[in-house]
Automatic annotation (TrEMBL), chain A:
Gene3D superfamilies: P-loop containing nucleotide triphosphate hydrolases (3.40.50.300). It comes from Dokdonella immobilis. This is Molybdate transport system ATP-binding protein. Residues 1-223 form the ABC transporter domain. GO terms for molecular function: ATP binding; ATP hydrolysis activity. The keyword Nucleotide-binding applies. Keywords: ATP-binding, Nucleotide-binding. InterPro entries: AAA+_ATPase, ABC_transporter-like_ATP-bd, ABC_transporter-like_CS, Molybdenum_import_ModC, P-loop_NTPase. Pfam families: ABC_tran. It comes from the Bacteria.
From TrEMBL, chain B:
The keyword Transmembrane applies. It comes from Dokdonella immobilis. It is a multi-pass membrane protein. Keywords: Cell inner membrane, Cell membrane, Membrane, Molybdenum, Transmembrane, Transmembrane helix, Transport. This is Molybdenum transport system permease. It is found in: Cell inner membrane; Cell membrane. One of its GO terms (cellular component) is plasma membrane. Residues 12-216 form the ABC transmembrane type-1 domain. Part of the binding-protein-dependent transport system for molybdenum; probably responsible for the translocation of the substrate across the membrane. One of its GO terms (molecular function) is molybdate ion transmembrane transporter activity. InterPro entries: MetI-like, MetI-like_sf, ModB_ABC. Belongs to the binding-protein-dependent transport system permease family. CysTW subfamily. SUPFAM superfamilies: MetI-like.
């Protein structure tokens, strides 16, 4: 369960969002500029909100009033960035194992994740030679294998061409069924949200504009 | 042209040794300082940068004199170091120190440019995966800067190899101890019949310097070229 209360003013956008999520997969849905990525950055610790409090499974990650700001490296939040951000000097296997090695933990469910994401044939490849869809699959695997308590997906399908998009979406669906991991997904594509989320939080210009279960969201989008 | 004499070999070997050692000794400090200058804002930063570049702008003789005042047998630091058995004055170790000081700005500058070129977003990704600052430095920043680090090392080596003014001022010219290749050339020029040696050593110096700048240019070009394509 994650509790998020974030207030942060940029020059052109004031974010004021508060929610508690305990469904398995919650989508943050809204146009670009609604503050979705800012929320993920705040949860991951890449941005310290001016005001707010973030609690993950009972552990306070951030509390402005209580002066708590847990360092990013020990938050155990798996972040899949929009642009994959794979390490270009490491091959796919080393990218996947980076988190486990950094935390000095035994590698958990490596085979299962590799199989679910169909990465077996790519393990020895250098990452700059991968296609967009392959990169994103590696990024998802890399985040999962760092044993996170929550997975943050920031528009993981944006920038992929149609075929790759369908393929990665299918992989994400399979992951959701196979692995028990809380997920927050940021998206502005209704079909992604309907395919993956259990619950949807609507964001508009930095504010919450509603909260729906996924069936109601699908109907509202005509899907 | 006759072959290189034992004295000339000695000067060449000494210059090579001083060049290599000075880079090896400076490298950890240069990496640390380049990291600080690239990634943090601290008070006095401008002063540190100005001091760093001083050896490039000062007349080398002045740098050598400053080293003598600081690290000479009766120098401010040298006197104290002599008590624990570390002597720089008129020793080859002093030539290494002079070479370190003269090459340091080139080393730090090259490495800093390379560090600046590393995509911060990759470091953020490593951070979310649990990597500490030290681990990110070792596993992400340094490997992605390796061309800049090598290019800087080659430049600093070439600078150290050719060092003259600071060295002769600080440690004089003692055959086999501090008479480096440039100093040997200078002395041969004032000796009757020294032209042959001057020409031989000049060719050697030319070859070493050219090879070094070529390697640095190759690595530098490849480094900036790579940035464009990725």
């Amino acid at each position: 369960m994650i509790e998020v209360a974030v207030r942060h003013a940029f020059d052109d956008l004031a974010i004021d969002v508060e929610f508690v999520a305990d469904s398995r997969c919650v989508a943050l849905f809204g146009d670009s500029g609604a503050g979705k990525t800012t929320l993920l950055n705040a949860i991951a610790g890449l941005l310290s909100p001016q005001q707010g409090r973030i609690v993950l499974d009972g552990q306070v990650l951030f509390d402005r009033a209580g002066q708590i700001d847990t360092p990013v490296a020990i938050r155990e939040v798996g972040y899949v960035f929009q642009e994959a951000r794979l390490f270009p000097h490491l091959n796919v296997r080393a990218n996947l194992l980076y988190g486990a090695r950094a935390r000095g933990r035994p590698v958990d469910r490596f085979e299962a994740v590799v199989e679910l994401l169909e990465l077996g044939a790519l393990l020895g490849r250098r990452t700059p030679s991968l296609s967009g869809g392959e990169r994103q699959r590696v990024a998802i695997g890399r985040a999962l294998l760092s044993s996170p308590r929550i997975l943050l997906l920031d528009e993981p399908l944006t920038g992929l061409h149609r075929e790759a998009r369908v393929q990665v979406l299918e992989h994400l669906r399979r992951l959701k069924q196979a692995l028990q991991i809380a997920t927050l997904i940021v998206s502005h594509q209704p079909d992604e949200v309907v395919a993956l989320a259990d619950e949807v939080i609507l964001l508009k210009a930095g504010q919450m504009a509603g909260r729906l279960d996924v069936a109601a969201f699908g109907r509202s989008q005509g899907l | 042209m006759s072959p290189i004499s034992p004295d000339e070999w000695q000067a060449l070997a000494l210059s090579l040794r001083i060049g290599l050692l000075s880079v090896l000794v400076s490298l950890p400090f240069a990496l640390g300082l380049a990291w600080l200058l690239s990634r943090s804002r601290f008070p006095g930063r401008l002063l540190v940068e100005a001091l760093l570049f001083l050896p490039l702008t000062l007349p080398p003789v002045v740098t050598g004199y400053a080293l003598l005042v600081l690290f000479g047998r009766h120098g401010w630091i040298g006197e104290w170091l002599a008590e624990i058995g570390v002597v720089f004055a008129f020793r080859w170790t002093g030539a290494v120190l002079a070479a370190c000081v003269m090459g340091f700005p080139l080393l730090v500058l090259s490495i800093r440019v390379a560090f600046d070129g590393v995509d911060r977003r990759l470091e953020q990704a490593a951070q979310t995966l649990g990597a500490s600052a030290w681990r990110r430095f070792v596993t992400i920043v340094v490997p992605l800067s390796v061309r800049g680090i090598v290019a800087g090392s080659v430049l600093a080596f070439a600078r150290a190899f050719g060092e003259f003014g600071a060295t002769i001022t600080f440690v004089s010219s003692i055959p086999g101890e501090t008479r480096t290749l440039p100093i040997a050339i200078y002395e041969l020029m004032s000796l009757p019949g020294g032209e042959g040696g001057v020409q031989r050593l000049t060719l050697v110096a030319l070859a070493v310097a050219f090879a070094a700048t070529l390697v640095a240019a190759l690595l530098g070009g490849a480094m900036w070229g790579r940035g464009r394509h990725d």
